[in-house]
From TrEMBL:
Residues 370-432 form the Purple acid phosphatase C-terminal domain. Transmembrane segments: none annotated. Its EC number is 3.1.3.2. Belongs to the metallophosphoesterase superfamily. Purple acid phosphatase family. CDD domains: MPP_PAPs. It holds the Pfam family Metallophos_C. GO terms for molecular function: acid phosphatase activity; metal ion binding. Residues 33-125 form the Purple acid phosphatase N-terminal domain. This is Purple acid phosphatase. Residues 1-25 form the signal peptide. It comes from Neogobius melanostomus (round goby). The lineage of its organism: Eukaryota, Metazoa, Chordata, Craniata, Vertebrata. Gene3D superfamilies: 3.60.21.10, Purple acid phosphatase-like, N-terminal. Residues 136-345 form the Calcineurin-like phosphoesterase domain.
Length: 451
């Protein structure tokens, strides 16, 4: 603090004139990188590093092989100025650098920043680019700055090397824009302990909607040219599709987004289903925030079963009867659909249009005749967990209101394993699923797409 020595009347004037300056404070010089996180740009041997500074600096990543000479390589990128739309119009620079020509499965040590300040030292393992790779994931939605129940367990799992990639299925921070986007900053600092070490792949949720999803669009770096709203990428035997379910709910931001996403999705599924592509990557897994089916009693999307979600979204993506050309996920043989938004865990029997399509009576998940759905939105946030509707429909196979998250390993072309971790029960696995799908069944799917 400093004192202004002046006549009282002048003092008052000076204070008034200075008021905005006093309230806002002069920004410190802030060239120190923070909020470091990785994402996979979708090309073999690539990794993207994203971070924040509050003053403008260059964008450089220096890196080297673990055990080799530190920082003997360097890559440059650039930054974009992100001006939050809150009262303070806070400004920050989001830096993005893509590393290319990485050796598959090699571990790299890196730091990021510029001559005006370097981050801590982090490391990551470049993804194996073979279609025979069996990648391991943690996946969840609805993780907040406050009450992030599963975060510590996820941090420790990640540090133990349990995951190759993390999938965060929408709803971050609660909410990133709050307190003039300081909640976003703090959340990105919280997940750095995970996301600076393994690629952190995202899709938008309803909690990102403020100011047209600008915090989400600016802070993450996903493949494609849609600022992370929808995109696809491949890993091991899997083709992943990430969608914005929110385009159906915030039509003010542009009805054309509904159609752009839909057109893109249909093309993407068609391409993924070309025989030569599906032979290499037989699994198609989608992720999107709001589920098509759910049985929570949250006075929200699931409370009435024929919710807006299943009506509008189902209508456009998933409907069995009304619009036979638009039931894309089913016709294009999507194997697994990952959702969040409900603050619970729910596993569904193979389902399409509210009807259960078990593989067989004894083995419902062996060669299922419709996509399998998992809802995993209980990572932990200030809204706590949700309750269930006491009378779920036939498609509901297992439900839990424990805080937790899901682990998944795509073992090979025919076998996928998934399990649910309860944070409330000290990491106990409370549910698991083997999903074996024979190649022959897939070819039936593919034929169904073109019949
Ligand atoms: C930012 O960097 C990328 C990668 O180096 C480059 O493709 C792009 O043109 C750059 N953008 C600007 C505005 O310099
Ligand atoms: C990638 O994974 C495949 C399948 O497990 C394995 O055969 C291959 O050796 C791995 N690549 C490297 C570079 O380790
Ligand atoms: C919202 O953002 C999307 C994605 O950048 C853009 O296409 C759309 O035009 C924006 N809508 C409005 C109303 O600004
Ligand atoms: C699907 O399989 C489960 C588990 O065996 C069973 O409880 C359920 O009744 C089956 N549903 C149908 C429609 O066959
Ligand atoms: C795929 O993995 C499953 C489960 O580990 C195994 O039983 C099966 O033999 C594997 N298939 C091939 C072709 O390796
Ligand atoms: Fe949500």
């Amino acid at each position: 603090m400093f004192r202004v020595k002046m006549e009282p009347v002048h003092t008052a004037c000076a204070l008034l004139c200075l008021a905005p300056w006093l309230v806002r404070g002069l920004p410190p010089i802030w060239t120190q990188p923070e909020q470091v996180h990785l994402s996979y740009p979708g090309l073999a041997g690539w990794m993207e590093v994203t971070w924040t500074t509050f003053s403008k600096t260059d964008s450089t990543v220096e890196y080297g092989l673990l055990g080799g000479r530190l920082f003997d390589m360097s890559a440059r990128g650039n930054s974009t100025l992100f001006v939050d739309s809150g009262d303070e119009k806070r400004q920050m620079y989001i830096h993005r650098v893509i590393l290319t020509d990485l050796k598959p499965v090699a571990t790299y040590v890196y730091h990021c920043g510029s001559d005006e300040g370097w981050s801590d030292v982090f490391y990551f393992t470049a993804l194996n680019d073979s279609a025979l790779f069996s990648p391991k994931f943690a996946l969840y939605g609805d993780l907040g700055n406050e009450n992030p129940q599963s975060l510590a367990r996820l941090q420790k799992d990640t540090q133990l090397g349990m995951y190759d990639v993390i999938l965060h299925i929408g709803d971050f921070a609660y909410d990133m824009h709050e307190d003039n986007a300081r909640i976003g900053d703090e959340f990105m600092r919280q997940i750095q302990s995970i996301a600076a070490y393994v690629p952190y792949m995202t899709c938008p949720g309803n909690h990102e909607s403020t100011y047209n999803f600008s915090n989400y669009r600016n802070r993450f770096s996903m493949p494609g040219q849609t600022e992370g709203l929808w995109y696809s990428w491949n890993l091991g035997p899997v083709h992943f599709i990430s969608l914005s379910t929110e385009v159906y709910f915030y039509l003010d931001y542009g009805l054309e987004l509904v159609f752009r996403q839909f057109e893109w999705l249909e093309k993407d599924l068609e391409e993924a289903n070309r025989l030569e592509n599906r032979a290499v990557r037989p699994w198609i897994i989608t992720m999107g925030h709001r589920p098509m089916y759910c049985s929570d009693d949250d006075q929200d999307d699931c409370t009435t079963f024929d919710s807006y979600v299943s009506e509008v979204q189902g209508w456009l993506i998933h409907s069995p009867n009304d619009l036979p050309n638009l039931d894309l996920f089913y016709r294009y043989g999507v194997d697994l659909e990952l959702w969040a938004h409900e603050h619970t865990y729910e596993r569904l029997w193979p389902v399409f249009g509210d009807k259960v399509y078990n593989g067989s009576k004894e083995q419902p998940y062996v060669n299922p005749k419709a996509p399998v759905h998992i809802i995993t939105g209980s990572a932990g946030c200030r809204e706590r967990t949700d309750k269930f509707n006491p009378n779920p429909k036939d498609w509901s196979a297992f439900r839990s209101t424990d805080y937790g998250y899901t682990r998944m390993q795509v073992i090979n072309a025919t076998h996928l394993y998934l399990e649910q971790v309860s944070d409330d029960q000290n990491g106990k696995v409370i549910d698991s699923l083997w999903l074996p799908i024979a190649r022959l069944i897939r070819q039936m799917y593919i034929r169904r797409c073109y019949c």
